[in-house]
Amino acid sequence: MAYEYDDQNIFAKILRGEIPNSTVLETEHCLAFRDITPLAPDHVLVIPKGPYVTYDHFALEASAAEIVDFTRTIGKVCDMLGVRPGFDGDGFRLIVNSGTNGVQEVPHMHTHIMAGRWLGHMLPSAKQD
Ligand code: 5GP
Fold first, then answer.
1. What number does the ligand 1 atom closest to the CA of 96 have?
2. What pLDDT, in 10s, does the model give residues 51-88?
3. What is the rounded distance in angstroms from the CA atom of residue 111 to the CA atom of residue 117?
4. Confidence (pTM)
5. Domain spans in the chain, listed from the N-terminal domain onward
6. Is the CATH number 3.40.50.720 carried by domain 20-115?
């Protein structure tokens, strides 16, 4: 089975410049921009420029250069936001929703970086929802 990438998804349109975004950082392989519906004072999405659907797709098929750039971009954005624990910030949370059970809405792999407030415990309860 192969991953099927829908190039009409909203992040593909952002990457093609068809929809505006609030860019935080752009690198060779990644774009970081502010979430349109922030759930925390700082809510930034980091996406690879390549056509990856889910985290597992990216982890299994992206090149080493893409993976390094993605990981480093997350670190750089955390630094830019001033949220690095023990340095100048109070911490952050990374979330990568994947697939149906992960409640992924946009089928282009992305990491949420959320910070700027106490974010509560990781999940309210396995039985809620
Ligand atoms: P998911 O549920 O797929 O992990 O998260 C998708 C995220 O994309 C949501 O937090 C949503 O607010 C954000 N989003 C959806 N459409 C747009 C858009 O057009 N621009 C930006 N900046 N964020 C978007």
1. 4
2. 999 999 999 999 999 999 999 999 999 999 999 999 98
3. 18
4. 0.96
5. 20-115
6. no
